[in-house]
Amino acid sequence: MTSFLEQVFSAVFGTVGKNLVNNLSQRADQMYDFVYVKVFGLPFIVLGARQTGKTTLIEWLRQNVRSLDGHDPAPTAPGGDAVHTFSSQIGAENVRLKPTRDVGGEYEMWETDWLELFRETRPRGIIFMLDHTDVLNHKDALNFVMNMIEEEIDAKRNLKAVLLLVNKSDLWLSGTSLDKLMQNYANEVKRLRNQAERLGYKTWTQSASVTQGVGVDDAMRTFINIIRPSPK
Ligand SMILES: Nc1nc2c(ncn2[C@@H]2O[C@H](COP(=O)(O)OP(=O)(O)OP(=O)(O)O)[C@@H](O)[C@H]2O)c(=O)[nH]1
Ligand SMILES: [Mg+2]
Prior knowledge:
This protein is α/β, with parallel strands linked by helices. The protein has helices at residues 2-13, 15-40, 54-63, 110-121, 135-151, 169-172, 178-182, 186-199, 216-227; strands spanning 42-48, 81-82, 86-90, 93-98, 101-102, 125-130, 161-166, 202-207.
């Protein structure tokens, strides 16, 4: 349809006509995305090695509570748990979110649950969670996610952001800084930045304590602002 219109407009008005049609169809796509997300929710996924706080973060978003102290979920089982689309108060705004599924972080689930979720959701954003323990495992998990993004041509098409969320700051912030902790991941972060630049998504690192409600609101506001389609 567009190419037919383009041909007609190019024949009648030359390049100006072609550009006009391109512009209009781009705006129609943007408007469609904007309305679609308002109704059906922002598709994003939460990944990360075992026990990093994925379930807790989804609960934090879902319950709209500012602290989950004492909250102690069981490790997420193979197959994960379905998460229905819900609205969440983030900053001053009510945003409709669609994380689709809460997946577990055990190694055996990466090739199965993580990959399936990525393919099914075609997320606009990925929150990759880690903490201050088990550096090698977090490196493996992050490299797995980068490989997955590299290889999955359809699933990565809408990707606008990958946030590295370093959780449990209540346990490590008194002994070290975010920069120091992230020195362990210098190669992975470099690779992630290169990939982001090449594929056109944004990536950055933030610290948080989801159970204490510290830094999560800020991280989520930034994340949502980057991944949501613009109304223009
Ligand atoms: N101290 C502290 N503990 C946290 C924080 N966030 C989560 N936890 C705890 O870490 C443990 C694991 O949290 P989960 O949310 O189950 O982690 P998960 O990534 O879903 O774990 P799997 O499903 O096994 O992959 C729980 O005991 C949480 O209460 C935090 O910010 N600080
Ligand atoms: Mg879990």
